[in-house]
Automatic annotation (TrEMBL):
InterPro entries, per the entry: Mlo (IPR004326)
Alphabetized UniProt keyword annotations: Calmodulin-binding, Membrane, Pathogenesis-related protein, Plant defense, Transmembrane, Transmembrane helix
Family: Belongs to the MLO family.
Job description of the protein: May be involved in modulation of pathogen defense and leaf cell death.
Pfam families in UniProt: Mlo
GO cellular component: membrane
Subcellular location: Membrane
Written domain comment of the UniProt record: The C-terminus contains a calmodulin-binding domain, which binds calmodulin in a calcium-dependent fashion.
Name of this protein: MLO-like protein
Lineage: Eukaryota, Viridiplantae, Streptophyta, Embryophyta, Tracheophyta
GO molecular function, one term: calmodulin binding
Organism: Juglans regia
Bilayer topology annotation: Multi-pass membrane protein
GO biological process annotation, one example: defense response
UniProt gene name: LOC108997143
Length: 411
């Protein structure tokens, strides 16, 4: 029996109760999400988490932008899919290897089997839903610039990318705050008599004899190459040592507060608020970040082997950032040595941070690189989940098991 394709029913043929049920469910879900966001925002206001509240407002703005993109994709779906290009142009820069045309001998044997598999799968129905059952460009011997179904798939990927980025940033913030909990013990130690005695302002000591000096002022700190090597490997063991924390705390207080604030100022809470301020920045998707998303999509061209190098870029960036931050701490110690070997305050020299210690004198560049890394990780994970959902296991995006392992482990 020959298969006769049928078009989907329009609103004219759809029961009103079905339309009402779908609209009711969408409205209820939207109101529920809005209520949850409102409750979270109220809780952040009560807890006086201004930066996190602003981050929540930025997430709401991203959701609004996502809705606008969704609207544009829906409205422009037909005009875009109606643009026809030649087949020679349409077969360039494909993400997957182009299948060779079957020979005439095998064509008749394989056509029936492939057609049956096509109709039995959900792809046939989903594609007809997006293209309304036919391809206008095929009648002209051309291909669509981007089919309606491909636009539908892109729509789903953009949504998955935005959700993945927000969840990735939230997870990073949670892990950062968890790691900072042990700093509370160090902060409480600053109120003890032993700490006050060891930081008596009437005492003097050589810079190299302080705990901070013994950690940073060594023979390797005089050589740029050895300095970077030591700082690169040091980040894997104790990224923030106790002596570094107490020294940076002391230097901050001496630069911005009165000396008597040594035992009153909570430096850990200040760093926590700074982390929340940075979270407000990285949780947003700025225009330049969207531009990077376009470049990431472009790099998935077959033959570029992006799975071998793209997931490793954020790893390289974040290792360089970690090493740079360690180098900055050591260079602050070297500045003390350059100004004089004898320092006031036994055990805690006064370090003086400066913008010139950062790349190009721009501390915000570090934050931007971290932003790029978070977004790239979100892109890799979202792309993997999206391709698995749209095309199933063993799709051309993840033919090799190495690709899956690299994407997930690096992300």
């Amino acid at each position: 029996m020959a298969f006769k394709p049928e078009y989907e029913r329009t609103m004219e043929d759809t029961p009103t109760w079905a339309v009402a049920v779908v609209c009711f469910v969408l409205i209820v879900v939207s109101i529920f999400i809005e209520y949850i966001i409102h409750v979270i925002g109220h809780w952040l206001k009560v807890k006086q988490k201004r930066a996190l509240y602003e981050a929540l407002e930025k997430i709401k703005a991203e959701l609004m932008l996502l809705g606008f993109i969704s609207l544009l994709l829906t409205v422009l779906q037909q005009p875009i899919s109606g643009i026809c290009i030649s087949k020679s142009v349409g077969t360039t820069w494909r993400p997957c290897e182009q299948l060779k045309s079957p020979t005439k001998k095998n064509y008749q044997n394989s056509t029936g089997r492939k057609l049956l598999q096509f109709l039995e799968s959900g792809f046939g129905e989903r594609r007809r839903l997006a293209t309304k059952g036919y391809d206008k460009c095929a009648e002209k011997g051309k291909v669509a610039f981007m089919s309606a179904y491909a636009i539908h798939q892109l729509h789903i990927f953009i949504s998955a990318l935005a959700v993945s980025h927000v969840l990735n940033c939230i997870a990073t913030l949670a892990l950062g705050r968890t790691k900072m909990r042990k700093w509370k013990v160090w902060e409480d130690e600053t109120t003890t008599l032993e700490y006050k005695y060891s930081n008596d302002p009437e005492r003097f000591r050589f810079a190299r004899d302080t705990s901070f000096g013994r950690r940073h002022l060594n023979f390797w700190s005089e050589s740029t190459i050895l300095l970077w090597l030591v700082c690169f490997f040091r980040q894997f063991f104790r990224s923030v040592a106790k002596v570094d924390y107490l020294t940076l705390r002391h230097g901050f207080i001496m630069a911005h507060l009165a000396p008597e604030s040594q035992t009153k100022f909570d430096f850990r809470k200040y760093i926590t608020r700074s982390l929340e301020e940075d979270f407000k920045v990285v949780v947003g998707i700025s225009p330049i970040i969207w531009f990077f998303a376009v470049l990431f999509l472009l790099s998935n061209t077959y033959g570029w082997y992006s799975y071998l190098w793209l997931p490793f870029l954020p790893l390289i960036i974040i290792l360089m950032v970690g090493a740079k931050l360690q180098v900055i701490i050591t260079k602050m110690g070297l500045r003390i040595q350059d100004t004089g070997d004898v320092v006031k305050d036994k055990g805690t020299p006064v370090v003086r941070p400066g913008d010139d210690l950062f790349w190009f004198g721009r501390p915000r560049l570090i934050l931007f690189l971290i932003h790029i890394v978070l977004f790239q990780n979100a892109f890799q994970l979202a792309f993997f989940v999206w391709s698995l959902y749209e095309f199933g296991k063993g799709n051309c995006f993840h033919k090799r098991i190495e690709d899956i392992v690299v994407r997930i482990s690096m992300g």
